[in-house]
Amino acid sequence: MDLKLTNKVAIVLAASKGLGKAIAMALSAEGAKVIIGSRDEDALNQTAAEIKQLTGNDVIALPVDVADAAQVTEFINKAASTFGRIDILLNNAGGPPFDKFENFDDEQWQKAFELNLLSMARTSRLVLPHLQKTGSGRIINIISGSVKSVLAGSVLSTAMRMGVVGMAKLMADEFGPYNITVNNVAPGLILTGRIKHTLPADIDYDEAIKQKAKTIPLGRIGKPEELAALVAFLASEQAAYISGQTIQVDGGAGRNIY
Ligand SMILES: NC(=O)c1ccc[n+]([C@@H]2O[C@H](COP(=O)([O-])OP(=O)(O)OC[C@H]3O[C@@H](n4cnc5c(N)ncnc54)[C@H](OP(=O)(O)O)[C@@H]3O)[C@@H](O)[C@H]2O)c1
User: How many whole angstroms from 19 Cα to the centroid of ligand 1?
Assistant: First the structure.
């Protein structure tokens, strides 16, 4: 299927590694011009070069901390002037720490708010005028399966991502008249650096991976490109009538019915 992304301009945030990188790769492979952002400039440049080499399409690296208002404003301005348009915004960020509710203080709540909710509101607001011009804009937010099914220790993540779900629903409502769709993608367990760091050090790597996958119906942890494939579809013209949704990519792990 031709996703008709050739020459569309996509911003992919938190994209030097993990899910963001796989998404940037998938959009670029479908012909989009991609602008990637994250904090570590060297890692970002390396990722841009790697994607460009594999796909042959334009990939621009612009360093940004998505939690920093001034940096984000500068990033979006530069991104908009690079190719003269923005068609797709992929909101993503690092995840907040995991712990019990009682162990988080105000400062940690504030940080999680700025990183995982306010950042997505801010980028969406700044990109909106550009998407309104294209007449077929896409906003896709990476959140977490914890918005559907309780995950122990994920109170910061779940609270902020529930905010994104509510925000996206209202954005879908308000932006529909501009032909802009807004959707969330909720990963279950997808094998990235973030997940590798949580594996117990005292057991063999393969065994640790096997144990993590025990409760997943498909019997394995997901691959970043499996989530990226859904994002590429949501970004496509074929997905023009899907909006306001939260879609899980979790191998069947979420036991929620709704
Ligand atoms: N992988 C999973 O199974 C899974 C499951 C549920 C939810 N999620 C969520 O999905 C998101 C991505 O996870 P991942 O597994 O891809 O993580 P990852 O492999 O650790 O990659 C995180 C990426 O985010 C960038 N980043 C972190 N903080 C940033 C900031 N303040 N500004 C800009 N970029 C930033 C990092 O680059 P720099 O450090 O250079 O900035 C890196 O490129 C996270 O929010 C995570 O909680 C993942």
Answer: 7
Range of the domain at 171: 9-191+223-249
Which of 194, 225, 248 most suits a substitution to test ligand 1, by most atoms within 8 Å of the C-beta?
194
- Answer whether 221's CB lies under 8 Å from 213's CB: yes
**Is residue 232, in this structure, part of any structural domain at all?**
yes
Q: Given CA atoms 98, 102, 104, 109 in this order, what sign does their dihedral have?
A: positive
- Give the tens place of pLDDT for each residue, 181-210: 999 999 999 999 988 888 888 899 999 999
CATH of residue 58's domain is 3.40.50.720
In a domain, 121, yes or no: yes
Q: Tell me whether residue 82 is in a domain.
A: yes
Please say whether the beta carbons of 19 and 92 come within 8 A: yes
For residue range 10-50, what is the model confidence (pLDDT) as tens digits?
Answer: 999 999 999 999 999 999 999 999 999 999 999 999 999 99
Q: Ligand 1 pocket by C-beta < 6 Å: which residues?
A: 14-20, 38-40, 43, 64-67, 92-95, 115, 142, 144, 157, 187, 189-190, 192-195
